[in-house]
Amino acid sequence: xxxxxxxxxxxxxxxxxxxxxxxxxxxxxxxxxxxxxxxxxxxxxxxxxxxxxxxxxxxxxxxxxxxxxxxxxxxxxxxxxxxxxxxxxxxxxxxxxxxxxxxxxxxxxxxxxxxxxxxxxxxxxxxxxxxxxxxxxxxxxxxxxxxxxxxxxxxxxxxxxxxxxxxxxxxxxxxxxxxxxxxxxxxxxxxxxxxxxxxxxxxxxxx
Length: 207
What we know:
Layout: E1 2-3, E2 6-9, E3 12-14, H1 22-57, H2 74-94, H3 99-103, E4 106-110, H4 118-131, H5 133-144, H6 152-157, E5 159-163, H7 175-203
Antiparallel strand pairs: 1-2, 2-3, 4-5
């Protein structure tokens, strides 16, 4: 019986590709963090402009806004956390790669070689913050003890991260799908960040 990249039949098993290493996965996460920072900057700037215009129309002196616009409080932090998590869940669940993973030429697949799916991607992301403990040493230890280099999140979600070149073209999701999913994830991230900044600014008395 064939399932994805892995074939089993009787007592024989053909293993799939080797799991990607820790450092290439860390590099992908750092790249995604940099992209999230840029999205945060754009969303914050847009929120600042909107608030500035609305406050000016309401007769609030412009100089009183400069000390408040850009101030980060709880709502912005929560929005940032949810935004970056959503990017990974959507990207890995609907395509397999975030922008960072795509640039590093790695992708997330299920243990049987098929697409991971949204539920698995959500499990991976929830467990990421456990794997991140002690500067990633928890993930390193988990991957070291795993034949497929699976961190805790992968083991929980029944997924693995592999080099894109090791995935047969017939099993890959299309480039167009990647573009659409990546754009949707960035828009969702930006929308959450914009909302968080707007909430923070409005709570500071800027309507």
